[in-house]
Amino acid sequence: MKSVIPGEKEMQKQWHVVDAEGQILGRLATRVARLLTGKEKPVYTPFLDTGDHVIVINADKVRLTGKKLTGKMYRHHTGYPGGLREVSAGVLMARTPERLVREAVFGMLPKTKLGRAMRKKLRVYSGSQHPHQAQRPVALAL
Prior knowledge:
It is built from five helices and six strands. The radius of gyration is 17 Å and the shape is globular. 29% of the residues lie in helices and 18% in strands. The longest helix has 13 residues, at 25-37. A four-stranded parallel β-sheet has the order 5-2-1-6, covered by helices on one side. The chain has a two-stranded antiparallel sheet with strand order 3-4. By secondary structure, it is α/β, with parallel strands linked by helices. The protein has a single domain (15-140), classed as CATH 3.90.1180.10.
């Protein structure tokens, strides 16, 4: 059986706006990751980038359940000896809430070249305004 690879005409990329106000972070991230990978589309192919562009607004109003504000830690290494830095989710939410949403979504994408291409299609903003009105994004209710 031959597999049919979708062409450019079938892989039209749309723009979606997702309002994160009052949404739980993990549930929001899974829905956004599915949109970025293209699993919502009938032309989904695992080795092609068939996903859409996603704009997340109001990232500062996302919710975390349980004790995650104090217990969940985000770690990164500076590259220098003893350079492991960690910050709690509450501090990260106060400083840069865009990074909190971005890290949650990136953790659900593949860690390959294809995943890095999908990362570029995500835009996260802490306020309700975004500079992508020219792309005519469609509001998506979760």
